[in-house]
Each structure stands twice: as C-alpha cells, then as structure tokens.
Amino acid sequence: MPGKIMEQILLETMVRHMEIKEVITDSQHDFTKGKSCLTNLVACYDGVTALAAKGRATDTISLDLCKAFDTVLHNILVSKLERHGFDGWTTWWIRNWLDDCTQGVMVIGSMSKWRPVRSGIPQGLVLGLALFNIFVSDMDSGIECILSKFADDTELCDAVDALEGRDAIQRDLNRIERWACVNLIKKFFSTRVVRHWNRLPREAVGAPSLEVFKARLDGALGNLVQQRVSLPMAGGLELDDL
C-alpha cells in the first residue's frame, strides 16, 4: 500500500510536467486526459473521411507493437525521462524502482535463480501506462501522414492515388522502423492491416449516430482487410508488399 501511494504522488507530479512540457503528442489517446479509445477512432475516421470526401483513394495501415510492455528497456526509458526534463529526484526514484525488480521461474517444483529484470514496465501498477506513453512519445517524430496511437496500436493514414502519397507513407514506415531499431525493439510489428476506405459501405458512412456508426463499422472493416502478416524487423517494412 505505501508503494501505491508513493506511485500516485509521483504520477500527479509527472502528469503536470508532461502537460506543461507537452511530452505526450496529440496523436496519443491512451492514458491522456480527455481522450480514450473512442477519440482515437473518431480522430482516425475524421482524417480518412476528409480525404475520401475529396474522392481521394485512401488507405489506413494498422501497426501493432509486439509484447509492448515487455520490450521497454529500462536504460532507454530513463534516458528519455532525462531528455524530457523530469527532475533528478523523479528520474532517480523511477530508475531504482525499475532496477529493483527480479524474476524467477519454477518448473515441476524446481526453482531457478533470481535474475534482475532489464526490460519491461510492470503492468497493473500506477505508473505503468504513463511510463509507456513517455517511451513511445517520440515514435511519430517527423511523421508526414495522419497518425493516431492508442498505447501500442498505431494507425497511419494517407491518400494513395498519387505517387507523392504512397512515397509519404513509405517514408513514414521507414521512420517508424528506424525508431524501433534505435530503441532496440527486435520485433516491432506483430500484425499489419491495410484498409481501403473507399470501399466502405455507404450505410456505415451515413450512420445517424456514433453508436450506430461503430456497430456498422465493426461489421464493415472485415471486408476492408487486404493483408494481415507477421513482420520481423529484419524484413523491413515495404509499402509495395501491402
């Protein structure tokens, strides 16, 4: 219980700092004041429909961070805290809080030795989501297309009826891949989904309310999926493969 209280006090201080310094970008909708999975859907849909309404061929690429909370390296996370200007006491506390974790494995009554945990953010803790948001906050640096994130799920959208749009998406995919390499993410994307929004049924687009739209959209998206594949980092991300 004392640990949870300490986390909550620290979280309130960190949230104030993140708001003042604008650490979390507008593209992130998870664990962000006034945002949710619903605002994430609306933001993505607004961007898509604005392009589709102009008659533009529009695609959305969905990317998923594989084993998201387990892949965050502690030393990289702490360096990002320092880069974003968190005070020395906060950074020191979080460093010691993360470095103090150990784990062991028991198989058929035999227990392994306890080993220090060098990566991963403990889930279910007060600070977990805030720290993860800080870790991925720089993923969309320099992105040209419409980007929307909800925790480890990322939506990338742009018009693809011209070479310029397709090249922009490819450049953004390259940027995201470089981000994964810099942050030592060995396998970044567990799934990739491409949706051709110009094929969205009229009954979904013209829904009378948000609730009806969500229900109709869920049924329609299954028909928009072109490809869903596993993406090891070594293979790279090529738009031509979509």
TrEMBL record:
PROSITE patterns for this protein: RT_POL
Cross-referenced Pfam families: RVT_1
Occurrences of domain Reverse transcriptase (ranges): 1-209
Protein name: Triadin
Natural source organism: Grus japonensis (Japanese crane)
